[in-house]
# Entry
Amino acid sequence: MNRRVPAVNLKRLAPRIGAACRAARQKLQLTQEDVAERVGLATEVYGRLERGNMTPSVPTLRKLCLSLNLSADVALALDDTAELPPRPMLEEEQSADVRRLLRRARELPPDRLKILLQLANVFAKDAGARTEQPRAAEDAA
# Structure
C-alpha cells in the first residue's frame, strides 16, 4: 500500500487555485473586495491570488474554500467534479450595494455611525408607510 504521491508543481498549482477561486466567486456574484474582506486579505493580494501569481497558505486556502463554498479538491485540482452542497446566502451577500454600504459603515467613527443608523430608520419607516398606503386605499374601495 505504498502509494507514490506526485510532486507538487507550485507554478501549475497557483493558476489552478486562482481559476477555481475566480469561478466560485463569480458564481456567488461577489467582488474581489468582498472575498478579500471575508478571508482577511488585502484586495490587491486576493487579486494576485486569483491571477495565479501566488499560492495561498493552508489557513488562507481553508478560509477561501469556506467563504466561496469551494471544495478543496476542486481548488487543488484533485477532482474537478467535487461540489459542496449550496450554503445559504447571508443577507449581506444578496446585494452589491448593501455590501458596499456595510463596508463603508464599518469605517465610520461612532458618532457618524449613529447618524447613519438614524437615517436608515427614517428610510425604513418611510418605506413601510409607502407599502401600507395601497392597502388602505384597497380597503376603502
The radius of gyration is 22 Å.
